[in-house]
Amino acid sequence: MANIPALPTYPEPLWMKSAESLPSYPKLEENIESDVVVVGGGISGITTGYLLAKAGLRVVLLEASTLFSGTTGHTTAKITAQHDIIYDALIKQEGYEKAELYYKANADALQFIRDTVNEHGIECGFTEQDAYVYSKTDSYLSKLQDEMAAYERLGITGYYVDHIPLTNIPAIAAVVMKKQAQFHPLQYLSALAGKFVEAGGRIYEHSTATDIQQDKHPVVATANGCQITCDRVVICSHFPFFDGYGFFFARMHAERSYALAVKSKVNYPGGMYLSAEEPKRSIRSATDLDGSPLLIIGGQNHKTGQGICTINHYETLQRFAAESFGTESISYRWSAQDLVTGDKLPYIGRITENNPNIFIASGFKKWGMTTGTAAALLIRDLVQEHDNPYTQLFAPSRSLSLSTLKNLVVDNLDVAKHLVSGKVEMVHRKPHELNSDEGAVVSVHGRRAGAYRDSEGKLHVVDTTCTHMGCEVEWNDGERTWDCPCHGSRFSITGTVLEGPAERPLKTIEVSG
C-alpha cells in the first residue's frame, strides 16, 4: 500500500511524552528504618505503598530508575477484567470457584481505580468503555459462544454480538464486557504517588535494591551500599530481584508486545477491542499532547529474544493501521515486556512459605492495570494479617494442575533449546562491517560478541553471554537492545541491565572501530 506514514525513528511511549512534568525523587544515601519497604515504582508498587501508608504504616518505596519507567509506562492502559477469551478455559482447568474469584478480583481492582479517581479528583482521562473480544473467522465462533456461556455462569455483565461498532474491522462475532475503562496511567499514578507522600510515604528513585537479608526484621540492601531495616518487604519489581528459592525464572516466561499511537482518518465509535485470533490486535482511543485524538494499536506478541527481527513487528502494525484506519501519521511507537506464569494467573503473596515477611507481585501477563491493582489490595491485607478471599488463588506457592506443569515443562525445554543453539551458532560478520545505527551478532577474535555502531560512528561491543544463566542474547533492532531468549533478561547497547532476572551487566569488549 502506498503512502503509509513512517514509523518514529526511536521508541517512546505516548504516556511518557504526554504526561505533564512528572515529579522527581531523591536517591537513597543513608541507612534508614521503616515498617515496610516496597520495591518497584509501577502500578502495583505505588498502589501498595499508597494503601499501606493510608493504613498508618511507615512505608519506603525504592525504584531502580524513575517512577513508571518500566512496564507500567509502556502499557496500553486498558482497565478491564476481560483478559482475552479466558473464563471458559479457567472454569475447565481450574474450576468454577477459581474462575469466579479471578473475575471478582479484577472487577474489584477496576472499581478501586474508579473510586480512587473520584475520591481524589484525579484528571487522568478515566472513561468507561465496553470491551470487546472479536473474531473475523468462523474458527473462533464456538470459542466465543463458550466464553459467553462462561460469562452467564459467572454473572459477568456482558453480551454476544455478530458485529462490532468498529466497522473498519470485519468482525463476525464478539463477546462484550460492559462498563470497563481506560485512562492515562501516568497521570493517575503520579497523583497516587503524591497522595502516598502526603500520607507519610517516602520515595527514592535511582535506588536499586540488590538483596534482602532474611530475618525477623529483613534488611534491604541497595547497590550503593545503603540498608533499610524493616518488618515487611514487598517486591513489585516486575521480575523479582530476590528469588528466595522460589525459582521464578523457571516458573514464568517473558513476552514482548508492540504498540503504535496513530492519527486516523476514521471517526472512532468508542470501545476497547481485542482480536481472538493470532496475531493479536488491541485497539483503543487516546489523546495527544495537543488534545487531538489518537488510536493505540497493539499486538505482535512473542517470547523475548525470539522475535528477531523486531522492527518487523512494528512494520506489521504499521500496515494494519494504514489498511484499517487510514493512518495520517504515526506519533509514537513503543513495546512492553510482560511475564506469564504457567497457569496464566499472577503470583501475589508471600514469596515462599519459608519467607513470611517477604511478598511478591509478578506475572501479570498483559493485564497489569487490574492485576497490579488487585495485587496491591491483596498485599495490603496480607501485610496487616487480614483475611482476603483471593489469598489462595494467587499464592506463589499454590499447587499446580497437570496442564500447568506441562506448560512449564514446555517452557523449560524451550530454554534448553536456546541455551544450546546460541552456543553452536556460526558467526562470520565483523564489527567494522556495521553501518551507522546498526547492531548485530559478530565475531571478535573468533568468539561470539554483540556490536552496535551508534549514529556518531562509535562502536559498542559486548559479550553476548547472558549474566543470568549463560544463554546467548540476541539483537533487538526495534529497541536497540540485547535480549535473552531463555528467561527474558534485556540489556542496553553498553550492557546495562534493563530487565531481569539478570542482575549483572554484560561484559564489554574493547575493539577498534
From TrEMBL:
Residues 426-513 form the Rieske domain. Keywords: 2Fe-2S, Disulfide bond, Iron, Iron-sulfur, Metal-binding. It comes from the Bacteria. It comes from Paenibacillus sp. BIHB 4019. Pfam families: DAO, Rieske. The keyword Metal-binding applies. SUPFAM superfamilies: ISP domain, Nucleotide-binding domain. This is (2Fe-2S)-binding protein. One of its GO terms (cellular component) is cytoplasm. GO terms for molecular function: 2 iron, 2 sulfur cluster binding; metal ion binding; monooxygenase activity; oxidoreductase activity, acting on paired donors, with incorporation or reduction of molecular oxygen.
